Amino acid sequence: MKPAQIFRQYIWIINTLRAYRRLTFEELNRKWIEDKVIDGNPLQRSSFNRHRDAILDMFGIIIDCEPKAYRYYISNSRALYDDSVERWLFSTLAVHGVLADSSAVKERLVLENAPSGEQYLEPIIRAIKTNRQILVSYKAFGAEGYEKLLCPYALKLCQQRWYLLAFTGRHIAVYALDRMTNVKQTDSAFEMPADFSPQNFFSEYYGVLTDGTPMEHVIIRAHGRMPDYLRTLPLHHSQRELEATEHYTDFSFDIRPTADFLGQLLSHGDGIEVLEPQTLRQKMKDLIAANLERY
After folding, report:
1. Interatomic CA distance for residues 24 and 72, integer angstroms
2. Is residue 23 within 8 Å of 31, Cβ to Cβ?
3. Could you give the CA distance from residue 140 to residue 228 in angstroms, rounded to a whole number?
């Protein structure tokens, strides 16, 4: 059986248990046959147990069984909503499965461009796994190209672009994969610090710009329908809802307000207003005034 078909079986099991919460094997098997997951053939218990193990290994999702009722359920459902690689992989494969079944209506599906720089993912991931330095040919926008020997620490996907977090030998820096012109793995090994966490490194920022901007307690006012957008897709993990009225809702963030974050706020136009701190409010006014001068 092709890997894509097996992945779709994994996704079906996860989505079915997520939808129905708890099912006996007989109930699960009946739905499996009704949905014709493998051309109407029944799900074998041995196959189901192998799938459970694979789902745990691949997605970090635990499928447990009640000891008396013998109903299966997802015991760590939070794994379906966190920011882990497993969650991202599950989401990606789930979408892939839906699209694979939708080729007949492909002209009615409007998609965004795939992340750029993906051709360098494989050699960089291989170097990360083996702790090998990479020699990167790099050309930033509006600058001369150069080569750099890097210790690859982590990868981050942001705004449809892949970025590499790496140690240069002097400091940690971020490099866009779409500005790389070549990547070559070397035989030189490196050791990533045991106490270094890429998630913690980015946790105080929005996006990938990490320029040392001081931490701030930022309060914004979302007008019109913008509060619902922020509730369903928070801008940052520190986002907290403070006060809601008929016309607006206030949110707070504990964040380093870099240009990435300010640009995101500006992209929502008059839907978002910065209230505090006053220095940041003034900075937003200056940015808006500078934009107005262009018109």
Report:
1. 6
2. yes
3. 37
Domains, the chain, ordered by start: 3-100 (1.10.10), 118-202 (2.30.30), 216-293 (3.30.70)
For residue range 200-237, list pLDDT tens digits in order.
999 999 999 998 899 999 999 999 999 999 999 999 99
- CA 119 to chain CA mean position, Å: 19
CA distance linking residue 255 with residue 236, whole number of Å: 8
Using CA atoms, how far apart are residues 219 and 160, in angstroms rounded to an integer?
Answer: 27
Cα-based distances in Å from 214 to 251, 257, 286: 19, 8, 19
Residue the block writes with tokens 């990533």 = 192
Task: Say if residues 152 and 135 touch (Cβ distance below 8 Å).
Answer: no
- Consecutive H or E run containing 20: helix 3-20
CA distance 90 to 262: 31
Predicted pLDDT at 103: 59
The Cα 97–Cα 91 span in angstroms is 10
Q: Quick one: which H or E segment has residue 55?
A: helix 45-59
Question: What are residue 175's DSSP bridge partners?
Answer: 164
Task: Find the angle CA(117)-CA(124)-CA(155) to the nearest 5 degrees.
Answer: 70
**Mind listing the pLDDT tens digit for each residue in 104-153?**
666 776 767 766 677 888 889 889 989 999 999 999 998 999 999 999 99
Cα–Cα distance list, 134 to 131, 181, 197, 261 (Å): 10, 13, 20, 30
